[in-house]
Amino acid sequence: MAATQIAWLPMFPRPILAARVPRALLLILPLILFAACTPKLDWREFRADDGGFTVLMPQKPGQAERKFATPMGDVTMKLYSVRIDETVLGAGFADFAAPVDAHALDVMRDALVKSLGGKLASEKPVSSGGPQPLSGREIVVAGTLGAGEKAAPVELRARLYARDKRYYQVVLAGKQGGFEAGDADMFLNSFKPY
């Protein structure tokens, strides 16, 4: 029986799809819908056992260490990061010689602002998730990358936390508007110390 000749009970109208949509379109439609639902990012939990935290990452992160001087002494920052298009997502930690206090968070905030050559656009208190949540702060830094005609506005969102002598940093940086706000929130909210 052809698709246009389906017998229906009189109380139900004849289906429009069976009568008017070409069969090839019916075969392709599920593929189009499946492709539209496939996310661009494949978020998965990353566990940094050496840092004592988990965070969602859109792919397996690379690892880097950087030593630098601070008013509280020299430290080594260990950072796990990924690059998605023109955005960098990272989470890391550093161990200081003395407990990290509000002043130390101010110093680290100011270093992030200076590294971007920008201005602090906002700052607010936040708490991390996890079984041992931490109080911290979220900062937004607006800056410019490049010079002259090639200069582009960039934005950095970071969450800074401390526990005893350990400093934690969760950062998302890139072109303004270059990353979905929902994905950025999911990434920043996913940090959980343990």
Shape: globular
> What ranges have pLDDT less than 50 throughout 5 or more consecutive residues?
1-39
N-to-C SSE string, H for helix and E for strand: HHEEEEEHEEEEHE
**Could you give the order of strands across the largest sheet?**
3-4-5-9-8-7-6
| CATH top level class name of the largest domain | Alpha Beta
Strand content: 35-45%
Tell me the radius of gyration. Answer: 25 Å
Sheet having the most strands: 7 strands, antiparallel
Layout of strands and helices, then pairs:
Layout: H1 16-20, H2 23-37, E1 44-48, E2 53-57, E3 62-70, E4 73-84, E5 87-95, H3 102-116, E6 119-127, E7 135-145, E8 152-163, E9 166-175, H4 181-189, E10 192-193
Antiparallel strand pairs: 1-2, 2-10, 3-4, 4-5, 5-9, 6-7, 7-8, 8-9
